[in-house]
Design brief:
16 helices; globular; five-stranded antiparallel sheet; alpha+beta; five-stranded mixed sheet; single chain
Length: 850
Amino acid sequence: MHGGSFKGHVGGVKNLADIFRSLANDRQSGTLTITEKRLTKKIYFEQGSITLLSSTRRLRIGELLVATGKITDDDLELAIKLQKQSRNRLGEILVEEGFCDEEDIKRIVRYQVEGEIYDCFLWQEAEYEFQPGVKPDELQGGNPQILRLDINTNALVMEALHRLEEWRTTIRPLVPTTKEVYMQTGRNAEGMGLPEKLIEVFPDINGQYSVLQLAEMAQLSDFEICKHFATLVKMGILRPLSVEELFKSSGEAYALNDFAKAVTLYSRLEEIYPQDLKILVPLADSLRQLGQTVEAMPVYETAQAIMQAEGDEESLKRCWTTMLSMDPNRQDVFQALQAIEAKNLAAQQQRRRVIPWIVIGVIIISLVGVNVFLYKESQRKKLEDQENSEKLETRLIEYKQLLKNENWSGAHAAGLSLIKEFSKYEKTKAVTLPVTIETEPPGFAVFLNDKFIGETSLITSMVIGQYIPSAGPVKISLKHGGKDGQSVVYTLKSSENKDAIERGFDPSEFNSLNLLVSGKNRWSQLAEARFNGEISYLPGRKRYVISSREGRVYTMDSSGELSKSKVTVGEYGDILSGITVFENQVYIGLTLGGVKRIDVSETPLPDEESYPADAPVHGAPIVTKTHVVFASFDGYIYIYKRGGKLVKKIECAGYLPHKGALLEEKNVALFAGDDGYLRSIDIEKAKEVFRVDLGRRPVKSPIVCGDNVAVLLQGGVAAITSSSQVSKPVFIRSRGQAPFDLSGDENAIFMASHGQLDAYDVRTQKPLWKKSFRSQPKNFSHVALVKDRVLFSSGESVVYGLDRFEGRLVWRGDLGKSSWISSPFSVFNDHALVVLRGRAVGKLVPYYDK
């Protein structure tokens, strides 16, 4: 090893210890690079001693100094501002300003560097390379300002081996990997002697973050947090997500565009099933959507190797096309795509030569055997008809008995099966399917194809009717106030009656139908791919506008009919942002980066405006009379003049996955970042006004509530006075599980969690009222304000309307048992729109007709 470069595979940790000892004993100088999958660490040795470490994980020197009481939060915030102005190292600024001394910095850096190196010894699979005489980029040019260390390598190895033994015998059986995802069991963790930072992030142990991510949030090394987690698992306070839970949660996160969470969960599944394309493909796509193309590429490469082995050429072509879009210089991928096209072309030519001879052979065989075949087929059909007739008679007797016993659900299933299985027999035309009809509120006269069949009871709210699915459109009419009352018509199949309300599903799919008496409950038109989510409105054209995952933007009229013309702004599968409408113009964020003004009007605009960015934009842009402001996924806030001129690009420490909020009176934009800060940006002056530490990561966009701002966090809501530049946020903790959605106005905020709704006074942060629901959530909770109604849903088809001031349940709507709500509520004056199953649009009017 002495004197030259070397590289290889770490087959065991003893091997890594031998490498460190050899470099120390031979007094080597150079850089040792250690890589495991997407993590890389470079360690610089000088005369056998460790002098510097460079890691892909961010070193949190400032936070550690705050945690140890060496500096205050205000000291750190000022130092960070000075660092951005001078570009000097943070440690140098802290010393120069007198916040701490150089020994404090060295002690913290040494502690963190040692922890980073100890973690290398825990890696199970890694590659290493030593380059003698090579200095890291930080030391190139002999920068005298770099803080250099002098760590005794042999002493460090002894401590690392001691930790390794503890890892193998005590920790690893309980915490097998830093990619494991845990959640709390509900047992109390008090008195466990946990570090203060781990206690602060304890609410985030909720099945969304890996051990590695929580270590960064708590500012602990991998070994330290794994040691604490092992104790918590042993005491039954934490448990890992099961494989079934990982599959379910990762799929839901991917479907809802929560790519950061999807990467966390799929990465753990990748460790368990490293060759499963159902894991690799969404993992790679999620990394790509996050702008992490370097990390995504090796996952795509693994996936394409499996596709090649399975001979799946169509999937291969899609995979290679995506890889080329990320790296157009990949000649190997380009040539592979060309080879497939050449192979397919040759196969087509070969088929053209062979097909004529095959046709001749088939004709000869057919002529010889046709008479024998026809005879046997006629005999088979006679026997089949006889058997089916006997089976039909038996099934009809069973069906009639179910009707007699008023087993409506069983009779519906049996009758539907008869119609489908014996459609060609005359006797099945007499089969009718029962349907139960319920209204909210009850007390409506019900007509089936204009025939009165009963009234929904004030007690049962239900009547029984019968219909034949093959007999044409089925019309259900509800009349309030008896048979002569005002009528609302529902058509359950396509109809030429333009005044009918299309329910959007076939009547054969249900036997229990719940109807909203407002008659404005659902649209049936579908896009060619999943809708992206929130819906906007074009007042000048009186049309709604929404994007879909086929890279297109649709408009819809008030009846839900989709526009025949669709504006294309991306490719199939692209996740476009929410839409902002300003002065009847549409602005949308793109997967490829930046924001674009698009033309959806009948009279085309003279030109299209573009606002470029280097990473995807998933939050709807903020548009004012003079500016367009938005956040990109790589952690930058862009301020453009209307028309396309870049004013300023503001860098943030964490990435910005959510859209911003606008304080219109102050012309200030608010953005909540993954680093746990809420930033206030003066749009006109193009500078940051103030920054508030939220204490943990936000999970949704901030909302403006009068003079206050509310941000949804894991476990509760942070409320901030928007005019304050100094005061810390008030944290309002929710009951039970962490909330998923938040809504509010200048008087109150409403927190929606699984099966419950909390209302708080936005000025005093005191509870107003609470409401619990028995419904079992299918996905996530949603909440919105429509005038004086608070709409609430836990993702299932049922939506509740509560009195905004008292929390009384005053309205209930059901969008159909086969539906579930897959988007936040989009509020428009007296109604709200939601996306159902990702494909249909539902309309909710939370007021009963009088």
